[in-house]
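Section 5.1 Outputs to date
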Amino acid sequence: QVQLVESGGDLVQPGGTLTLSCAVSGSNFKTNSWGWWLQRPGRQREWLARISPNYAAYYRGSLNDRFSISRDNAQNTVTLRLKFAQPEDTGVYFCNTFPPPATGDWGQGTRLTVSS
């Protein structure tokens, strides 16, 4: 019954900014950590960032230099803001609980293409 709807993906030029959103329904949103993953072409999904119920944010490597994750418990949404976009940021972005559910359910994701 959980629904995950990612949105905001677009074509953006290198160096640009973008905000991705995830709308969640049918889940106990407030008590879960939520995260973002990126699936680059021909590769598996890779974790990017997560945010705890207490709003503690964690990032892979130094991605916090360009990525910022946030959540709005009143709207059951989690957001990922990207600045200084690079071609390697291209791919399909997914949101989900962190850790992902054992059922392995994912939404459709939203595609970002960083190109001139």
